[in-house]
Amino acid sequence: MAVGDGGRATYAPPLSGSFLGYGVDVRASLGGDLPADATIPLPVLITAWLRERCAVEVSRVELVPRDLPVSDCVSFGRQLAAEDCGLLVLGDGSTRHGPRSPGADDERSGPFDSSVHDLLAAADVDGLLGLDVELAAELGAQGRAAWQVLAGVPGPWRCSSAEFFAPFGVGYHVAVWERP
User: Cα–chain-centroid distance for residue 91?
Assistant: First the structure.
């Protein structure tokens, strides 16, 4: 199962889409052989693309609104925990890293994403739940709600790897959490 940013919506197999709207005509499928749907949101496409490369099944992709209150994120995480499956969480960091970023450059983006990286690397659920919702919105960090859904999934957790990249001025976090 996957959780990402994009309003309240659920996507499930069979489903196929294309990255054509993002500049490259690459098809991706959650399963089935349907014609590519050009309206599929990016987190769903990325989940489908990863599913094909990792040869795993994906039961569904749940999209959550980026302004979802923290308490609702936690409740949704606890609800998802009742399902016996892995969880892929998709969400961008700040979109304001540098003058060529999609958002205007903001000096707060570096410290914000550095903090998020440290929290993910430490599997610090309390820290993730304490992220400043308004600051995340100002910095275009669309992953805030999805990260807080993850923080609502009961642990304990440990992080086996965490990386951060900011190509084209957008912050991307990649972390792997496991049960000890």
Answer: 3
Cα Rg of the chain, angstroms: 16
Nearest-angstrom CA–CA distance, 73 and 145: 6
Q: Is residue 68 part of a domain?
A: no
> Do 114 and 151 have their domain in common?
yes
Phi, psi angle pair for 73, to nearest 5°: -60, -45
Digit-coded pLDDT (tens) for 81-137 = 999 889 999 999 999 999 999 999 999 999 999 999 999 999 999 999 999 999 999
- φ/ψ (deg, to 5) at 58: -120, 120
Domain containing residue 139: 91-178
Q: What are phi and psi of 169, to 5 degrees?
A: 80, 10
Do both 58 and 96 map to the same domain?
no
For the entire predicted model, the pTM comes to: 0.94
Q: Are residues 161 and 106 in the same domain?
A: yes
pLDDT tens readout for residues 51-88: 999 988 899 999 999 999 999 999 999 999 999 889 99
Looking at the fold, whether 16 and 95 belong to one and the same domain comes out as no
